């Protein structure tokens, strides 16, 4: 198995990306969700590296990727997508297959909508097309209250294997403590958006929700996906298949990418 290569990549917007690449073949990018840290993709990247060049990264202002305030102001799914295109330019990547869950799924769909020539196909899971009330309730919390709430929501309520989160280690969890505050400030009830049927069909999209997630959480994914003629399937997980069922997720991505090569 090829070993991951870690680098720092500076883009014209002042972002210095912590970027991890592995494997060879057609390009696949894995976009982190609101946690912003790419380390939880390690098992998925390793499983795909025999067939693809897999690129992932910490999100702007998160963990090991630094960003000026201008890069975070007026944040949106479209702005995330434009920042990722800037990174693709620096890496000389013309076209990619893209995975995104949660806010990473918003970025993936914004790439489809706003930059279709750069996207081979998108694979998305449980996209926050609007902000659920339990997540809105996190907006006014103090940093200490936020940390406790996020550990409960993301390590428990939205994950089906708390021990899988613990296995990511204390350094990862320490980085998340800072990331939660960035997420609360710039993402929550800010980046969520819906997409028209025409936007969703500019490139092929494979869409899933979790078989173990309460149906009401992401029911709008089913409505909007089917409304655009995109079947919405199931993964045997809740919100974070990259953490709880990485091998299943890797094969899901592999089959979706090969369908469009």
Polypeptide structure, described:
With 261 residues, this protein is an alpha/beta fold. The protein contains twelve helices and eight strands. The chain has helices spanning 42-48, 69-72, 77-90, 103-114, 133-136, 143-157, 162-166, 170-186, 197-200, 219-227, 241-244, 246-258, and strands spanning 5-10, 16-23, 27-31, 53-57, 96-101, 119-125, 205-210, 232-235. It has an eight-stranded mixed sheet, sandwiched between helices. Strand 7 (205-210), helix 10 (219-227) and strand 8 form a beta-alpha-beta unit. Helix 1 crosses helix 12, helix 3 crosses helix 4 (103-114) and helix 6 (143-157) packs across helix 8 (170-186). The model has no long low-confidence stretch (mean pLDDT 94).
Give short descriptive properties of this protein:
alpha/beta; 261 residues; 41% helix
Describe this structure in a few short sentences.
With 261 residues, the chain is of the alpha/beta class.
Could you outline the blueprint of secondary structure elements for this entry?
Blueprint: E1 5-10, E2 16-23, E3 27-31, H1 42-48, E4 53-57, H2 69-72, H3 77-90, E5 96-101, H4 103-114, E6 119-125, H5 133-136, H6 143-157, H7 162-166, H8 170-186, H9 197-200, E7 205-210, H10 219-227, E8 232-235, H11 241-244, H12 246-258
Parallel strand pairs: 3-4, 3-5, 5-6, 6-7, 7-8
Antiparallel strand pairs: 1-2, 2-4
Helix pairs in contact: 1-12, 3-4, 6-8
